[in-house]
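[09:14] KT: can someone run the structure on this one? pasting the chain below
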Amino acid sequence: MKILVLGGTVFLSKAVTAEAVRRGHEVLCGARGASGAVPEGARLVSIDRDEPGAYDELAGERFDAVIDVSKYSVTWVREALRAFGETTPHWTFVSSISVYADHATDELHPALEDDPAEEFTSERYGGIKVASENAVNEAVRGREFIVRAGLITGPDDPSDRFGYWPARMARGGRVVVPDSPDLGFQHVDVRDLARWIVFAAEERVTGTFDSTGPVQPFQMAIGEIAGATAAPGTQLVPVGEDVLERLEVNPWSGPRSLPLWLPRAWAGMVGRDVGRALANGLRTRPLAETALASLEYERGLGLDRPRKAGLTEQDEQEVLTAVS
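[09:31] RB: done, structure tokens below
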């Protein structure tokens, strides 16, 4: 197959490219190339999706599959569809479970268009993904594979979220963990998601899928990560949500956070039914395997480096002092 990956240099799109090459496909990556090189065996075509005529270099090219990992722009999605949608037999668009305004009812956010006057925020993200999905459905209905991804984990993750936990466990000592006995946890290893996306292109799987792994208790997941990566003598210190909130420890991601922890109001995000994805070819590896691969990646970067997400040693000591 001849596959066009719109991206190919960072995390999921890079993993998809590597998997497609491994399976013997001809892969072109349309990207600026500013974020790094594409995997060996793929070809980079310089594309800046913010510029007019972005696809001129590929005029007349035909692909068996297009895989679009666009995050933030409905315009980008529509321009790609305009360039290749009519002639491409299978079209993958990577969306997000953030399209859901209400996880209990599956109600979607209202669709939002790009607005240069509006700063991009997490509040706009879901609506932009909804509009992008709509554009895909309108242009290639019957040939679309829409991947509503949840938390994507594993090596090369630029968010620093999941990797915080293996890195922190490996340093040992007393580790602050949220005491959230009712909270679930869902994730998909980037390598498993990439493998499924390429499989779907090969087998012409179509439809819209919540694309993450099965639910397990959050505290069990933390225990499994610790079991795989923690230094000898590591002690997990559960801290109640009310204490974390009082000490201004943030949920999910970002500075002074406990990554992947969610307050009760957001718990529906980690309770998605992924039965359809599993029935259509998604396969997930053990969490411990993801943790070990993430730890290897983290060690390559340096366990003591400044992070985008997590508690610093000082932050964590403040919490430990407050509960001791």
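[09:33] KT: thanks! The chain has ten helices and 17 strands.
[09:34] RB: yep, looked fine to me
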